[in-house]
Amino acid sequence: MTREDLFKHIQLKQSFLCIGLDSDIQKIPEHLKNSQDPVFEFNKQIIDQTHDLAIAVKPNTAFYEANGVSGWKSLERTARYIKTNYPDIFLIADAKRGDIGNTSAMYARTFYETMDFDAVTLAPYMGQDTVLSFLKYKDRWSVVLALTSNESAQDFQYIKEDKTGEMLFEKVLKLSQKWGTTDQLMYVVGATKSESLKAVRKLVPDHFLLVPGIGAQGGSLKDVAQHGMNDHCGLLVNSSRGIIFASSGNDFALVAREEAMKVQKEMALYLRAANLIY
Amino acid sequence: MTREDLFKHIQLKQSFLCIGLDSDIQKIPEHLKNSQDPVFEFNKQIIDQTHDLAIAVKPNTAFYEANGVSGWKSLERTARYIKTNYPDIFLIADAKRGDIGNTSAMYARTFYETMDFDAVTLAPYMGQDTVLSFLKYKDRWSVVLALTSNESAQDFQYIKEDKTGEMLFEKVLKLSQKWGTTDQLMYVVGATKSESLKAVRKLVPDHFLLVPGIGAQGGSLKDVAQHGMNDHCGLLVNSSRGIIFASSGNDFALVAREEAMKVQKEMALYLRAANLIY
Fold first, then answer.
1. What pLDDT was estimated at residue A195?
2. What residue ranges do the domains of chain A occupy?
3. Is B115 on the interface with A (CB under 8 A)?
4. Which of A8, A73, A83, A96 is catalytic?
5. Total Cβ atoms within 10 A of residue B30
6. Which residues of A99-118 are buried (b: 16+ CB within 10 A; e: fewer)?
7. What sign has the CA pseudo-torsion B80, A94, B128, A130?
8. Which residues of B are designated catalytic?
9. Chain A contact for B25, CB < 8 A?
10. For position B196, what pLDDT does the model report?
């Protein structure tokens, strides 16, 4: 999927929503727990109810790995179900992987070949090696952590370099954008730091940004749209718990749809205000 | 396992070797490929032949995930086999995970509960959140990336902070050691940067260091021992390909033993020179 494809989907769906499938088995509705694969069943129903409102879907691998082999099965099933039934959905593995070259190539194989994800989130601590193996795949994306939405992001991401006065997250943005094109690289930029979005946009005016932290983590969608949007929208704003766990009853998927629709309607306003839809 | 336990095993085995199970299915001997679980069968034979020469064993999760569900089964089987048969082996998941709090807790559950690893490698880019959930488990270890052995480690790890003059990897060492004890935290420090080991030892004199990069990556064991050893040895030096893929024939496990024994004998020399064994 290219940057133009993403923009086309954004215009059609009037949305830049990414739904995070943080499908913790301990939080899914009771009535699903007797099904053969409760996590997959939960994901399937959420996706069936929300695929027309979302541009992207993002399972976080941690919630699957915690269930061992059966969790990995749920993840593979979820990925296959989405790519088979909703090929317009941009499928992101929120895996935050990062390793040296030969090992990194194995992770790329995992998410692009063994499964059919469009994108993987990557941690940049180990530098370019982390990303290069992923960039060898055509039509696949690397989503590099720049500025994360958690409180302890400040421990290291704001360290200011002596020579340049640049902070670590700025160095990551400046250096890594040389490794690939705007059709290969995106960045994670937390919504809880909306004032920092301006600084990020100066460094990467054309890239898509994956923005976590609205909803449960407290970020404002309005601020993100105001400071982060570019001429292709350039945003995928994630909501996980606020949508998928909005109800724990039999109606969970419909309530998830209602919540997703609220967010989508707000997104349509901002897209219209920016003259990206009419 | 405590720091004292590790030291006791080091003295008994006269070794501080960690064997990296980077068990790439495409590189394991042909005659194993018809067995029910070739990767597990490979690991089992390697471990049976080397457990008395090694202090630690370190599967890198990438090589298992690349095989999907069956790979995850091989990883679980390998972990269970080691903990059941060789409880003195310190079992490290080289997973390089790192995420926000609630997600990090899922990864901790994955490696400490769903499986029975003693330790997990963690990437510090997102700060303290990455590690805290892991430290809640008693008798388990977090192995934090400080200075890695790959070339592009220099992209970010050597960034020098303006106020303090400290480099990013030094900041990681200084800050993170406040999060837990020397019985909970270790650091990854690449052998390819043996001169940097001195700087690391000043900052973390008592911690164990997990040192990759000898063998295939070109680091020198002698340099590592000279600059990195402390009064509890304080080193786990990893070798992966140099041992496990030393032969691709029917004799692979015996040849792996020979290679492991060469390393162990060299390690015994350095332990004796440092008066840690007699």
1. 75
2. 3-273
3. yes
4. A96
5. 10
6. bbebbbbbbbbbbbebbbbb
7. positive
8. 96
9. no
10. 86
**A interface test, pick of B70, B100, B158 with most A CB neighbours within 10 Å:** B100
Answer yes or no: are the C-beta atoms of A146 and B171 closer than 8 Å: no
Read off the pLDDT band of B45 (50, 70, 90): very high
Inter-chain residue contact A96 with B68, CB threshold 8 Å: no
pLDDT at A36 over 90: yes
Residue B178 has pLDDT above 70, yes or no: yes
Q: Which residues of A touch B159 (CB under 8 A)?
A: 159, 161, 168, 171
Query: Cα–Cα distance between A110 and A102 in angstroms, integer?
Result: 13
Interval B237-270: pLDDT, tens: 999 999 999 999 999 999 999 999 999 999 999 9
pLDDT at residue A62 greater than cutoff 90: yes
Of B24, B72, B127, the CB nearest to A153: B127
Class of domain B3-273: alpha beta
Partner A, chain B 175-204, Cβ-Cβ below 8 Å? 175
- Check CB contact of A74 with chain B, cutoff 8 Å: no
Q: Touching check for A63 and chain B: CB below 8 Å? A: yes
Q: Confidence class of residue A213 from pLDDT cuts 50, 70 and 90? A: confident
Report the pLDDT value the prediction gives residue B92, as an integer from 0 to 100.
98
B181 Cβ neighbours under 8 A, 6+ residues apart: none
**Using 50, 70 and 90 to split pLDDT, how confident is the model at A203?**
very high
Task: Answer for the pair A233, A16: CB distance below 8 angstroms, yes or no.
Answer: yes
* B33 confidence band (pLDDT: 50, 70, 90): very high
Whether A19 contacts A54, CB under 8 Å: yes
The interface pTM score, or ipTM, of the predicted complex is: 0.96
A149: contact with B, CB 8 A cutoff: yes
Q: Return the bridge partners of B18, or none.
A: B56, B238
Q: Which chain A residues are closer than 8 Å to B130 by Cβ? A: 152
Strands (E), chain A: 17-21, 56-59, 90-97, 119-122, 141-147, 185-189, 208-211, 235-239
Chain B residues close to A100, C-beta within 8 Å: 148-150
Whether the pLDDT of residue A193 is over 80: the answer is no
- B250 touches B31 (CB < 8 A): yes
Cα B72 off chain centre by? 19
> Residue A278 has what pLDDT?
86
> Which of A145, A202, A151, A205 lies closest to A176 in space, CA to CA?
A145
A22 touches chain B (CB under 8 A): yes
**The predicted structure's pLDDT at residue B3:** 98
